[in-house]
Amino acid sequence: MESNWAAEHLQVIRTLMERTAIYRRALAPVALMMGILGILAGSIGWIWGLNSSRAFGVFWLLVSVVGFCLAMLMVRRQALKAAEPFWSPPMRRVMQAMLPAMLAGLLSVLLLVAPSWRDPLQAWWLPAAWMVWYGCALHAAGFFMPRGIKLLGWLFVLAGCSLAGVLTCLDGVPPLRLAHGAMGGAFGGLHLAYGIYLYVTERRQ
Q: What is the phi-psi region of residue 83: left when phi exceeds 0, alpha when psi lies from -120 to 50, beta otherwise?
């Protein structure tokens, strides 16, 4: 039984190494889509004035669900185009690596939305927590994907830690409109920059 388990892992590793170029081509449109969605969502939250803690949490939770569904659809389209199964062993490994951090991010927003003691300060900690958890998820997925994902994960972790550090140094709580800007700038800007990087390097190769 252990030999079968080892053989399966070796096959997964071999498949992931062979599909590095395919993953790069699939990641570029996904990253660009996530970048545009993040910037658009940040602009909507800023303009519409979603400045209550519950509205902020629910809005960005919906944005994350939409982004995840669109990303899965794009990956599935790439798999169909390459005549490969969508829920393949490599895909399962990537999702299993990302799952703990993604669940922690979901728990963070539920803890903000559900209780009655929520306040603007609690809402302000959500962007920092999401950046860190999402960065951890990307870093974990980077062990099965191109190494640029690890760097992107680190950038999200550093962005979240920097935002948390800034919050601790402020005397008061900034308006939640700025929190929408922080989410749009981090999740939109970093994804957009990574998508452009993938397109440029892929074209050179």
A: left
Counting DSSP H helices and E strands in the chain, the numbers are 8, 0
pLDDT, tens digit only, all 205 positions of the chain: 455 655 555 565 555 555 554 555 578 888 899 999 999 999 999 888 777 888 888 899 899 999 988 988 887 777 667 666 656 666 677 777 777 777 777 777 776 666 555 566 677 888 888 899 899 888 888 776 766 788 899 999 999 999 988 888 888 778 888 889 999 999 999 999 998 888 787 665 5
Single-letter code of the amino acid located at 190: L
Are 163 and 182 spatial neighbours (Cβ–Cβ below 8 Å)? yes
* Residue/partner pairs of 117-120 with CB below 8 Å, 24 or more apart: 118/53, 118/54, 118/57, 119/53, 120/53, 120/173, 120/175, 120/176
Count of positions (residues) in the chain:
205
CA angle 98, 34, 61 (to 5 degrees): 65
Rg (CA), the chain: 18
Direct distance between the N- and C-terminal alpha carbons of the chain, in angstroms, rounded to an integer: 42
CB 186 within 8 A of CB 35: no
pTM beyond 0.70: the answer is yes
